[in-house]
Automatic annotation (TrEMBL):
It comes from Litorimonas taeanensis. The lineage of its organism: Bacteria, Pseudomonadati, Pseudomonadota, Alphaproteobacteria, Maricaulales. This is Lipopolysaccharide export system permease protein. GO terms for biological process: lipopolysaccharide transport. It is a multi-pass membrane protein. GO terms for cellular component: ATP-binding cassette (ABC) transporter complex.
Length: 405
């Protein structure tokens, strides 16, 4: 019976947690989508670039969604289990609350190992790939200018292209490019015109190329001298504003995998990264994985509800608790990275406090069998609220000069 009960709870919890992970990722991506659409508006292939950006951002949002989904999924599962009187029946059959917590611990263990992989490898690589892709898209600079049919300046070039030609062709095309010769201290510009052009994208580099046909090019130096008048049947102009290669991965600690951070814990591999910053990031990743193993001991008491009326207090307090905990961990990491405290202290002191809190409320719920923690907390609030109201009423009566019987 115990095995079947655990399977039943695990199935319900897995469905709730999985659904919450998907929902949380979608919600978190909504805000970033606006920036992604703004970036890919200048891309030669906006749909593919936006898809790759979202793919590289998913590990970042998965790292945020997994703890929230585990906490809320456990609270929702236990709350439903309580309201249907199944919890009362299980307790009456001699099954302890600790045994009913085992399925959530198994799920938490799986998610902890998954988090180590996501935050330790997928997030750093995905973050770098996203930044690299943004850089590449921004280099594809004249694509949007040619589609707009207006004069647009990008770097040293000014583009104009008509958009009234049939098919995929554009034209007429006008390109003004300023130039400067530092050696001879001369300035000039180049004008290129063409009756027609086509925009293609190189498959190997994803770089836009403007193929011109039936055009002319003129070079003007010092404002008056024409240094060439070239007619051509076909010519190609690349759309990259800069030929510089994107930097190597490892600009900051968030782009380094956990193994790379571990190897650099003495600062011998990446000299541009301080030891404190490196170790604070490493402890934060390990602390988040350990935190997942503690959350079931908090979520189960938060979800207890011995009545039949649904309650959203556990969900609300769980969200506030997890958001506050996340901010506390980030603050502890910043203190450790700045060298004000040891890097491990800013993370593991918070984890220790959370573990003590989890042990206390779970012990109260599993072995004392009193009111659920949130119900007892609400009753205490109501009790003190009644005292405050009574004192305020006495003060009001005294001020009004009425003698209380």
């Amino acid at each position: 019976m115990l095995g079947r009960l655990n399977q039943y709870l695990m199935k319900r919890a897995a469905v709730s947690i999985g659904g919450l992970v998907v929902f949380a990722c979608c919600v978190l991506l909504l805000e970033r989508l606006l920036r992604i659409f703004e970036i890919v508006s200048n891309s030669a292939d906006p749909a593919a670039d936006a898809t790759r950006m979202i793919y590289n951002l998913l590990p970042h949002y998965l790292g945020m969604a997994v703890p929230m989904a585990l906490l809320l999924g456990t609270i929702i599962t236990i709350d439903r289990f309580s309201r249907s009187s199944e919890l009362t029946a299980a307790l009456g059959a001699g099954i302890s609350l600790f045994h009913m917590t085992k399925p959530f611990l198994l799920l938490a263990s799986f998610l902890a190992f998954l988090t180590l992989f996501i935050e330790g490898y997928m997030q750093p690589v995905g973050r770098y790939n996203y930044r690299q892709l943004v850089n590449v898209v921004k280099q594809q600079s004249f694509t949007a200018a040619l589609r707009e049919g207006t004069f647009t300046t990008v770097g040293t070039r000014t583009f104009f292209a008509g958009t009234d030609l049939p098919g995929a062709a554009i034209g007429p095309i006008f390109i003004y490019e300023s130039s400067e010769d530092d050696l001879n201290n001369q300035t000039g510009f180049r004008i290129t015109t063409a009756s027609e052009g086509r925009l293609v994208v190189r498959e190997d580099t994803n770089e836009p190329v403007l193929q011109l046909s039936s055009g002319r090019a003129n070079q003007v130096d010092n404002g008056t001298q024409i240094d060439g008048d070239l007619g051509f049947g076909s010519a190609s102009i690349t759309g990259a504003a800069s030929d510089t290669k994107f930097r190597e991965r490892g600009d900051d600690e968030r782009e380094l995998t956990s193994m790379e951070l571990f190897k650099n814990r003495h600062g011998t591999v990446y000299d541009t990264l301080s030891v404190e910053t490196n170790n604070a990031a490493l402890h934060l990743r390990a602390g988040r994985a350990v935190l997942l193993l503690i959350l079931p001991f908090i979520a189960v008491p938060f979800g207890l509800n011995y009545g039949r009326n649904p309650s959203s207090a556990g969900i609300f307090i769980g969200v506030v608790f997890l958001v506050s905990l996340q901010k506390a961990l980030e603050f502890g990491q910043s203190l450790g990275a700045s060298g004000k405290i040891p890097p491990w202290l800013g993370i593991w002191s918070i984890i220790a406090i959370v573990a003590i809190f989890a042990a206390y409320i779970f012990w109260k719920s599993a072995f004392k069998m009193g009111q659920p923690p949130l119900t007892a907390f609400a009753q205490q609030i109501s009790h003190y609220q009644g005292k405050v109201v009574k004192k305020l009423s006495n003060i009001r009566l005294k001020l009004a000069g009425v003698e209380r019987v």
